[in-house]
Amino acid sequence: MTDLTKLSAAALADKLASREVSSVEATRAHLDRIAAVDGDIHAFLHVSERALDVAAGIDTRRAAGEQLGPLAGVPLAIKDVLVTTDMPSTSGSKILEGYMSPFDATVVARARVAGLVPLGKTNMDEFAMGSSTEHSAYGPTRNPWDLERIPGGSGGGSAAAVAAFEAPLALGSDTGGSIRQPAHVTGTVGMKPTYGGVSRYGAIALASSLDQVGPVTRTVLDAGLLHDVIGGHDPHDSTSLAEAWPSFAAAAREGATGDALKGLRVGVIKELPDSGFQAGVSESFRAALDAMQAHGAEIVEISAPHFEYGVAAYYLVLPAEASSNLAKFDSVRFGMRVDVPGGTVEDVMAATRDAGFGDEVKRRIILGTYALSAGYYDAYYGSAQKVRTLIQRDFDEAFAQVDVIATPSAPTTAFKLGEKIDDPLQMYLNDVTTIPANLAGVPGISIPSGLAAEDGLPVGIQFLAPAREDARLYRVGAALEAVLLDEWGGPLLDRAPMLDSMGGAR
Ligand code: GLN
């Protein structure tokens, strides 16, 4: 029998629709895989006790002849930043240990309505602050390509779950790269939608002007299918865009079969120097551009002089917003409370926040509070907002000349666990190519572009498009994916060395 965990979500959905496979079988296969490998990977913070019951419910409805959505019966992993009524939601923090939400995040509610089967909650850097998942209060996740290496962050759990075939689909959130950078280092696909394109209602806020929820998958089509389920206007989210969106799955299918690359103008930023990028990352990027060119794309050098200042602006805007968003963890309203006998409410609050937050969270709260304080506000936060506007203008000018912008998705392949944990600046610089999209609100996708020659680890290429042009990214991403799969003779993940030795059956 086919290994059900090895199938793409689209292929699994076909087998479910034709009733060749039941959702219970598909779900059990993934739960077995989790049981076999997650002791090593630690992608999950919680595995659902209800998954098989939910799957059985879908099977019953299908057997009764009910018309179900395209992904009905397909298992789904959920980043722990998204609140769920039937599983704890911790956002990777001790302060929310065991927290049960009274409502589901809109994206989770939509996934349930579409018949997806929640498998569990995935590990992440605390409150989504990090690029390695090492800032999780519950221990790190490991990269399935090499267990000594990071799976990216903050959504390392979702990316690792998908890369290790523990789930065909996952949900992530991306404030500065937390969907795209983990995709880059694990050989998976990650899509950050246009700001406002997917509801954040029930996504525990990190920085509200930057946060977006999106899909983490193994193929571009799968990302489109999941995006179709979770996207669109949500009256519960005041930043949610009102318009109707095209089908992203249809865009991906069109890209994979048509000639989306022909005449496509691909912008490459001239100010982004090769230095700072690992040689194998730059080589893989160039090779992907060559492949696109060979299929009719035009590579255009563009100028985006403020792009590289994104990291500096981001580390003022993000801490400022985070310090405000995290004020609600006050020992009264949510989660942990540390009692201080005879102490005031302020004493209890301080003791709780001291015990409940990790170092990186404290660092950013201090930074944000400082940046927003009277006398410094204009010099720091005000300047950062100006840089943000300049980056947005760079994008506007660039997109007058090109259809998409391409960059490597991150400067290096997966680094070793522990390598950057004591060096926040090095950790922050990891997101140099992903952050600008969040500052400008534009969509970005990362798809595998190959393996770096020097270490054999995955590399991703990122495409950016103007706001609201998410469908373009699915067309272009699927087109390049088809070209590269042809060249490679199959998915990169089939070559991940650790995966063969893990879980016996593979
Ligand atoms: N790595 C970035 C940070 O630490 C991005 C995080 C994110 O996208 N949630 O802030």
Task: Provide key terms for this protein.
506 residues; alpha/beta; Amidase signature (AS) enzymes; eleven-stranded mixed β-sheet; 17 helices; 11 strands; globular; binds glutamine
Describe this structure in words.
There is one protein chain. The model has no long low-confidence stretch (mean pLDDT 96). The chain is globular and about 65 Å long. It has 17 helices and 11 strands. The protein is of the alpha/beta class and 506 residues long. Helix 2 packs antiparallel against helix 3 and helix 10 crosses helix 12. Helices cover 40% and strands 12% of the residues. The structure holds glutamine.
Give the gist of this structure.
The protein has 506 residues and is an alpha/beta fold. The chain contains 17 helices and eleven strands.
